[in-house]
Amino acid sequence: MTEIDSEKDVYLFIHGRMDQQEKYIKALLTKGFSKEKIITAMPDKVGLVDDYMAMVWMPPNPDHIKIQKITKVEEVKSEDMTGLWKGVSKEDLFTIPLE
After folding, report:
1. Where in the sequence is the domain holding 54, given as residue range(s)?
2. Residue 32 belongs to a domain
3. 2 part of a folded domain
């Protein structure tokens, strides 16, 4: 597993599963992410290069979280629910099983 930098922000994509948010946060904490750095992802604010994305996958009944690192952020026009994240490039690092 890739070593994570607990000082970096991690943007959590929960795909509307607010009822499971605490479960997802606990899973991130077990892998060394800092609770203070976990941010619920919103379409109008993206992270910076080297920040993390935690994508709960696969909706609507996810069984793991994909951890990705932001590698590039390009300016885009926010036109749909993906929002500004459409301009973010990332690389897969590892997954965290949810069960």
Report:
1. 10-97
2. yes
3. no
For the chain, the DSSP string reads: -PPP-TTS-EEEE-TT-GGGHHHHHHHHHHTT--GGGEEE-BTTB---TT-EEEEEESTTS--EEEEEEEEEE------STTGGGGGEEEEEEEEEE--
CA–CA gap between residue 3 and residue 94 (Å, rounded): 10
5 lies in a domain? Answer: no
pTM for the structure as a whole: 0.93
User: Which residues are CB-contacts of 71 (< 8 A; sequence separation ≥ 6)?
Assistant: 49, 89, 90, 91
Give the pLDDT confidence of 43-79 residue by residue, as tens digits.
999 999 999 999 999 988 899 999 999 999 999 988 8
Task: Count the domains in the chain.
Answer: 1
